[in-house]
Every structure is written in structure tokens, then in C-alpha cells.
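Anyone opening a protein record will find just a pair of labelled lines. With that in mind, the following record should read easily:
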Amino acid sequence: MLLRLVYLTVTKAFAVLRLLPMSDRDKDVEILALRHQLDAPRTRTHWACP
């Protein structure tokens, strides 16, 4: 449990550090890409339902 907490803390810290030098446009592009990744499986499952 403690190891998982340390792992999550370190990965979140690196994610925040990676975003610091980004411009607003780069952040917007990444947000759009992540939204697309979340929406793509939903649309595939929606089409599979009769």
C-alpha cells in the first residue's frame, strides 16, 4: 500500500513538472487529445448497441 502511494505521488509530481514549461496552446492540444481518448471508446460501444 505504501509503495503504491509513493508510486502515485512520484508519477503525479513528474506529470506536473512536465506541464510547467508548456504554453497554453500546448496544454489545450493535450486536453483535446485526452478528451478524444476518453470519447472514442464511448462512441464505439454506443454503435455496438442495437
